[in-house]
Amino acid sequence: MSPRSARLARLSRSVTFSACHRLHSKSLSDEENLKLFGKCNNPNGHGHNYKVIVTVRGEIDPVSGMVMNLTDLKKYMQEAIMEPLDHKNLDKDVPYFSEVVSTTENVAVFIWDSLQKLLPQGILYKVEVHETEQNVVVYKGEQTIVK
Predict the structure, then answer these.
(1) Active site residue 130
(2) Is 24 annotated as a binding residue?
(3) Residue 93 domain boundaries
């Protein structure tokens, strides 16, 4: 009998959190912010029910039959997503966004970076953030080369 080759699989889990924010860049004037972000620049902010889907990728363990224990993934997502972001004003309650515009793109990067610190090295594959049913950002940790 030949040895069985390792099988790769992707495992995804989702969570939903509620938060408010204001799209506003300190690098722009109030007029420029209003022109760029429109109603999302409302000084009092606005809220979303974000849905986040986290996907990990790895070999299926021959003993457990899992890429990763879902209980562990749930715990990591609680720590990296729910605790810092749920029912928060992103701009005022999350230090990361004091200097970074709280766009969905940057929310995805924040979640990626937070999960990277908790998950086993190299297992995080994708973070998908649904700001609305129509607006979705997918981040896979990719970076551009600074020129």
Answers:
(1) no
(2) no
(3) 11-139
**Long-range CB contact pairs, 102-110, < 8 A, 24+:** 102/21, 102/22, 102/23, 103/23, 104/50, 104/129, 104/131, 104/135, 104/137, 105/137, 105/139, 107/50, 107/131, 107/137, 108/137, 108/138, 108/139, 109/139
Q: Look up 87 and say whether it is catalytic.
A: yes
CATH number of the domain bearing residue 40 = 3.30.479.10
**Model confidence pLDDT, tens digit, residues 17-73:** 999 999 999 999 999 999 999 999 999 999 999 999 999 999 999 999 999 999 999
Active-site residue, 99 included: no
Q: What pTM was computed for the model? A: 0.93
